[in-house]
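Field guide to reading this record: the first block holds the primary sequence, the second block holds the structure written as discrete tokens, and the final block holds curator observations. Each block starts with its own label. This record concerns DUF3298/DUF4163 domain-containing protein, catalogued under organism Flagellimonas lutimaris.

BLOCK 1 — SEQUENCE
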Amino acid sequence: MKKHLGPILFLCFLISCQTESKLTFEPLQLQGEDCDGCPIIEINILSALDDSPVSEVINRSLQEEIISILSFTEDKTIDSADKALQSFTDSYKELKVKFPDEVQWEAKIDGEVVYEDENIITFVMNSYSFTGGAHGYASTSFLNFDKSKGTELENWELFDDLDGFEDFAETKFRIQEKIPQDVNINATGFMFEGDSFHLPNNIGYTKEGIKLIYNQYEVASYADGPIVLILPYTEINLYLKRKVKN
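BLOCK 2 — STRUCTURE
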């Protein structure tokens, strides 16, 4: 038994280190007022519990994402998720007074961790809102954070070689969407601005690889839905600033 004690202790230590590197979260649920003249609002995200700079940044960024989705004004006093919910509700009630037949508004937001290692943690925010018109609008947002620096990362900060990654992504995009490499990127019906390929607004780490999501209207029509491209780490690690161990 003694000769196996060393490997067992090392394994326990390794598991412990991996567990300690993970941040701690609890579910956070927010709902709008429950009344006949109120919009439907359901928010299910996470709240970081660790006493660390990155936890503070995560919680603040998640709040800001909720505010951007629910707020219709540039009111600087809307600085929390609760105030954003109230703003969305007030906007609907005001419209309902002027137009009693206005259909009920709706907003749903779900957020979860889709990737985490010792260097980076990525959240995905899926939202759906309906504020009248022919249909609602669904979107996906990625939020990437550097755990050691305690900062939210802009897309360009994910890469050592952004231009190289963009060229590689275009090649893979054309293959996936069956666009010949020697024709205009919009030749088959896409709507890239300036007739040139560009990376989407939302890029995130996932277990499968770096995921690129073009939301509805970003490069295609509403009917086409979101356009998703996943690039495995084995193919794109050379472009990343924070490599992923395979």
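BLOCK 3 — OBSERVATIONS
The domain at 155-246 is CATH 3.90.640.20 (Actin; Chain A, domain 4).
DSSP finds five helices and nine strands in the chain.
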